[in-house]
Amino acid sequence: MKVLTANRLIDGEAIWYSAGQAWSETIVGAEIAADKAAEEKLEAIGKAAFAGNFALDIELIDVQLVDGAIIPVRLRERIRAAGPTNRTDLGKQARSTTAAIA
Amino acid sequence: MYRYDEFDHDFVNARVAEFSDQVERRLAGEITEDQFRPLRLMNGVYLQLHAYMLRVAIPYGTLNSKQLRMLGHIARKYDKGYGHFTTRQNIQYNWPALSDIPAVLADLASVEMHAIQTSGNCIRNVTADHFAGAAADEVADPRPYAEILRQWSSVHPEFSYLPRKFKIAVTGAERDRAAIQVHDIGLHLKKNATGELGFAVYVGGGQGRTPMIAKKINDFLPEEHLLSYTTAIMRVYNLHGRRDNKYKARIKILVHETGTEEFARQVEAEWAELKNSELKLPEADIRAIEAYFAPPALVARPEGDEAVRLARLDSKSFAEWLDQNVVTHRNPDYAAVTISLKGIGEAPGDASDSQMEAVADITEKYAFDELRVTHEQNLVLPHVARADLKAVYDALVEIELATANSGLISDIIACPGLDYCALANARSISVAQNISNRFASLERQRDIGELKLKISGCINACGHHHVGHIGILGVEKKGAELYQVTLGGSGDENTSVGEIIGRGFGPDEITDAIETVVETYLRFRTDKSEKFLDAYRRLGAAPFKEALYGNEAKAA
């Protein structure tokens, strides 16, 4: 299964496309594509965000569900979703809405 | 230090205005990312994992207090309260918003700084010995020549779209503290038999996925020919360097594939056309630039010896810092001080906004307003009266920057790695922190002696692992981090590339593996005077392999 992620143009913030049909600053609640058709739908949303100058570095990434939480498969994406592992006071992990654990 | 003239101010301000306009147009959607990307890279703006990253140039690593204070101000106002000093004597901010970067660049311009040519396939920040102008073993200050190269290479129309990035380093001493043999061009400033200044010229060194040691193509290039000869090298590279394969585009590949002799012949042929052109530096011009780097007026401070002697008796920690972080100055009343940015368990090269401001105060009060950034990710106060060393030490203790570990195993170079970098395959900072914590005891570190440990989170080798006495390279294998260990590298006047010792180690194994390597050295060294690198060169890899892999090593 996959989710759609990018960085926001104006500030570079890592963002994920959420099930609530908007881009979110946290991976929590990201829309999960479980089949090819859903992936294509997310891909189209990503392309539109790039073309619309809202986001860049758009990518579909592999995730798994662990106790209901969306956890990216690659460490790189887990760090993007949480923040630097040496500075837990920075990045998403420092905010009240917690993100994936790297 | 160098001061901007009217032309410099106008040029940098014009660039700030130009880039501000480009950012505005990008945010308004008038230009696409494909159009904007090369423009932002020319101004040092990358996109990393969490945010944009801004790399600010610190020419030959030299700063004054006003500039450092501004770097602290930028960290506080536009970033998250810290900056990261890099192996290219620059500083990087990890969290700026694109919309704020024009304001950051305007602030930088107000203190004669910029981010131009800190990225892209151009001539990057020219680096130099961090003890330049202070070192007792120096023939002459290399920075005037670095400044001449900086002026010549800034937006040079012929060399702004090279096959690949291009790095030049200059040293003015026999002991190479600028790692010139792992640069695209390395210049060793020296005097000939008649006392004239010139350079030994090295070409084609570099790290990355294909580490190579530079080849010397000229024993003595008179100083007046610095630009004509460098131009000749650049022309040969620009013409023949590969543009079809990014991984084979650096000058080191061209020199290697062409052969040193033939490459040198091509440079000589090109130079024959250039040596008497307008690129030949007039003596007056060299001396004019040199005047900017005139050493401060170092008044006699003979009371320093007694002050240091007494303070040493009074404080063991001061004595340890003195022994480790303070080096001889060409003036016996003075010393050069290394401010370690490698506190035990800290991220190498990071400094907070308040630390930067406090160091700026110390620089202004005790160090003739001059500070250096080292390629080993530390700071240096090049001119401190020995009589003031205790006061400087006390001030550094206050801001937790008095770790007495310069040149020891916890003085680790590490790239940002996977915690920040979009190119990385594995984390570097956490590995550095774990090793630093394991060897936290200063007594143990001092017993081990000089040991340069360098960590890169990918094959691009920003953490200089190839030239670490112990090098660690992070890779990704089957989705997990794996760390390869190299031994025997060195980035000084006897440069060598480290050898891969065997299979890699997981994140939970690498600290133990490093400890095994160190214990093996301690076991086999002749005595304490035989440093790690010397012992490795004498012993070879075998005892280290045996210690790390046991029977596995024998079977292989």
From TrEMBL, chain A:
Source taxon at top rank: Bacteria
Xref: InterPro entries: DUF2849
Q: What is this protein called?
A: DUF2849 domain-containing protein
User: Taxonomically, what lineage is the organism?
Assistant: Bacteria, Pseudomonadati, Pseudomonadota, Alphaproteobacteria, Hyphomicrobiales
From TrEMBL, chain B:
| MF (Gene Ontology) | 4 iron, 4 sulfur cluster binding; heme binding; metal ion binding; oxidoreductase activity
* Signal sequence annotation: none
Q: Where is the Nitrite/Sulfite reductase ferredoxin-like domain?
A: 52-110, 331-398
Query: What SUPFAM superfamilies does the entry give?
Result: Nitrite and sulphite reductase 4Fe-4S domain-like, Nitrite/Sulfite reductase N-terminal domain-like
Print the keywords alphabetically: 4Fe-4S, Heme, Iron, Iron-sulfur, Metal-binding, Oxidoreductase
Q: Does the keyword Iron-sulfur apply?
A: yes
Q: Where is the Nitrite/sulphite reductase 4Fe-4S domain?
A: 119-272, 412-550
Domain of life of the source: Bacteria
Q: What's the name of the protein?
A: Sulfite reductase (NADPH) hemoprotein beta-component
Lineage, uppermost ranks: Bacteria, Pseudomonadati, Pseudomonadota, Alphaproteobacteria, Hyphomicrobiales
